[in-house]
Amino acid sequence: MSQANTPVARTRFEAAYQQLRQMLLNRQYLPKERLIEADLVGALGVSRSTVRGVLIRLQQDGLIEIEPNRGARVSTLTLEEAVQHFEVREVLEGLLARIAATQMSDDAMAVLSRIYGDMERALDADGVFEYAGLNRRFHQLIVDSAGSHRAAALLRGLSPHVVREQFHTVLLPGRKDLSLGEHLAILRALERRDPDGAEAAAREHARAVRAAFIATSARLAAV
After folding, report:
1. Does the domain at residues 79-222 carry the CATH identifier 1.20.120.530?
2. Topology of domain 3-74, CATH
3. pTM (predicted TM-score)
4. Residue 93: closest CA among 220, 221, 186
């Protein structure tokens, strides 16, 4: 067995991959920004060959682009591509919320309620990045509660860039309070075991995120 294929090497690779992926999703590297291998070796604490493998996998995820003789950079989506992803996401998240309304266990419902409470406290403390992480957990729990439905796999297949950008629309002035209210509407519908209400609330939230994303993009384009 070569050193690159040992369990330890695979574990280091996976840890480095997850770490850099999360850094990209958290916008520690911005769209179009160059990723320097030597810097990543230090940041991730792994070898250059491991960094190269991680970058290849992240390119497969659609999070970065590797250009011949120029290296890697954070990839971007056009506004039209992003909007189309949001439209698909609205349908899938609505369907999964509908399914979760009847399938979510009482224990999972209690966890979802606690996550919502943590989201409230994070925004009260202006912890926007903490809120983004809790937001992801909130939606992931709903997806997980829908079981192995094909919609969950389709949702995972959407561009990670859309996932990354949607959780940062909360930075738009006035958006954070609206976002929190939308999540409360989803939670209450799920607690009522109301499939129609859960789907409607989830789709309304997705539409609001899409509108906020378009508004944010327009503001950045005007700078």
Report:
1. yes
2. Arc Repressor Mutant, subunit A (1.10.10)
3. 0.71
4. 186
